[in-house]
From TrEMBL:
Stored PROSITE patterns: PROKAR_LIPOPROTEIN (PS51257)
SUPFAM superfamilies referenced in this protein's UniProt entry, alphabetically: Lysozyme-like
Span of domain Transglycosylase SLT: 53-186
Protein name: Lytic transglycosylase domain-containing protein
Family (UniProt): Belongs to the virb1 family.
Superkingdom of this protein's organism: Bacteria
Native species: Pukyongiella litopenaei
Length: 243
């Protein structure tokens, strides 16, 4: 009888194991890098409205905290670092949306204009296209945080001169209807009270604003909100460049 020698145990396939570990690491990095890039972009874009507000405040002689409170009241959302405004915000005929990028927001608006949409709010300060689009050369310019902020600041300064009070001016910024203006002024006041100079990127969300579902849309209001004068006629049809 021939006896076969029992095979000796093989050494573990360390080479194969190392290759597998390396592959997993590469895949993990490939997933992490886009996420990190998106996070960095989001962090950068979140500060655009505040920086634009500060620049516009200096130019138009409006308190920076007033503009920073307005942009949060209009577009703010609760983030890990605080209650922050977002520049790529659109309120399309009563449906508010935050977009991840300027391109996404602009593409959405362009598509809706081609569909026939005429009244919607854009950007850091939710400038209304129907009533104020004539003041901009293009949709891209309306989305630009600085152009958006300067126009809003100029309008707020006019309202302050009319009302003599920044809270009342903020209410009129949103609506000339007293009930809507008062409700907005109260919301603005809560945001304004939480602003502290030097801590603009870490403003805590005020009570009642901890989990906003969408940009500001007043219940029961059929007209889009801010920067829409009541009882006025828009200055003709708005035709501005889409790009």
């Amino acid at each position: 009888m021939t006896c076969q020698k029992k095979p000796e145990p093989r050494a573990p396939h360390w080479g194969r194991a190392r290759a597998t570990i390396a592959l997993v690491a590469v895949i993990s990095c490939a997933v992490a890098l886009p996420n990190d890039a998106r996070a960095a972009t989001a962090s950068r874009d979140a500060g655009l409205c505040d920086r634009a507000a500060i620049a516009a405040a200096r130019r138009e002689n409006v308190p920076a905290e007033v503009l920073m409170a307005i942009t949060r009241t209009e577009t703010g959302r609760a983030r890990p670092s605080g209650f922050q405004p977002w520049p790529w915000t659109v309120n399309m005929e009563g449906i508010g949306s935050w977009f991840d990028s300027k391109k996404q927001a602009r593409d959405h608006v362009t598509a809706q204009i081609r569909r026939g949409a005429k009244s919607f709010d854009i950007g850091c300060f939710q400038i209304n296209y129907r009533w104020h689009g004539h003041a901009f050369s293009s949709i891209a310019e309306m989305f630009d945080p600085v152009h958006n902020a300067v126009y809003a600041a100029r309008f707020l300064r006019e309202l302050f001169e009319e009302h003599g009070d920044w809270h009342r001016a903020a209410g009129a910024y949103h609506s000339r209807t007293p009930a809507l203006a008062n409700a907005y002024a109260q919301r603005f006041g809560r945001v304004y009270a939480n602003l502290s100079t030097g801590a603009h990127d870490a403003v805590p969300a005020p009570r009642g604003l901890l989990d906003p579902v969408r940009p500001l849309v007043e219940a029961g209001e059929h007209r889009p909100g801010s920067l829409v004068p009541l009882g006025s006629t828009p200055p003709g049809a708005v035709f501005i460049a889409l790009n």
